[in-house]
Design brief:
Blueprint lengths: L1 H25 L17 H8 L4 H10 L3 E6 L5 E5 L2 H8 L7 H5 L2 H18 L8 H7 L20 H5 L18 E3 L4 E6 L2 H7 L8 H5 L2 H7 L3 E7 L6 E3 L4 E9 L8 H5 L6 H4 L2 E8 L5 E7 L6 E4 L9 E2 L4 E6 L3 E7 L5 E2 L1 H8 L4 E4 L4 E4 L12
Parallel strand pairs: 1-15
Antiparallel strand pairs: 1-2, 3-16, 4-5, 4-15, 5-13, 6-12, 7-8, 7-11, 8-9, 9-13, 10-12, 14-16
Amino acid sequence: MASEHLNEEGFQATSAALNNITDETLNNHAADPRSTLHRPADHEHAHSFLAKILPQHVITGLETKFHMGNYVIDRQTGEKHWEAMSIYVRVGMHLLYYGSEQEKALHWKRTLDLLRQQSEKMGKEYDLPDSKGHIRPFIESFQLQASMAEMVQPDPDRYSCFNEFFAREIRPDARPIAEPANAHVVSSPADCRLTAFPTIDLATKYWIKGYGFTMERLLGDAAMARAFDGGSMVIARLAPQDYHRWHAPVSGTVEAIKDIPGAYYTVNPQAINEAGTLDVFCENKRSVMTIRRHPHGTPTAVVAVGAMLVGSIKYVNGVDTLGTQVRRGECLGAFYYGGSTVIVIYPPGEVTLDQDLVHNSIDEKCETLMKVGWRVGISGVGDGNVGGGN
């Protein structure tokens, strides 16, 4: 009975905290997002905010269990940087752990409903014309002024709502692909924080620690899972401040698309790395595109995974029509508000991943900052030692 009481108390407190955070953000268009939704979770004001809503023993347990951010490595400089976790992610992490019977809590219908309601709430509000007021504070807070020059529409005032800005389109010349004449090269699918694993077994050993992860569950297809068994995996995490479209990592023909409904759990690395939690990649809403690669004739799976506060996953320019030819570096789709992830899976022996990315992922246990089109690996020639950017 005591554990049931703690479960109920934990859920009610976390629900109130998340609702307060999103309300505070939506009700104050001009506010710096790093003072509301994206307030660093290790900031003293974030702690005082949560203290008003969460019981002290809940806060103490949360702080003990989690670090308040992640280290990432800049591929071009090799430097390691700390990125603080946003307060809404911190609260979302709590939804993965409260109570003593994790399996029941994780699949608790009210938890799923809460995350869905909050994601739909943010998506609906950010589609309204009034949400334009959030755009300039967002740009200034995350210092995106210079990057706006790379966009098809560089003027923040020309966007009709925040979601249109969030899914803004980049000029193709702003993200040239590495080695464009080399059909063997594979590229980063996004501006992202990327991890790369030569085998799926290594990915589950060093990165994906949640229970319930299988290729069949991730892809929603047993036959497809067998085709990729033993293959390599690239995980590209998009933070909210990143350019939020994803691109083709290879050239080829769109052979299949499978939309899989699911939840809206956070995809922060600590949700992925923590043993004993639910595997969020197999639980979250996602869309699986299979590309028959040219000229190799082999399949590549590109899995767009939604996350906490992500309203929708949308393909662009008709690329979701089966038989469409796509080029490496071509835009495939857009996420609308929130963090998200793109997972790329290659068949066994198909790609040798660049060694610097593998080293960062396995030895350093860190993500690497990447841009769309930067080289991730190469097929057929056994040369995976090249790194250092585009």
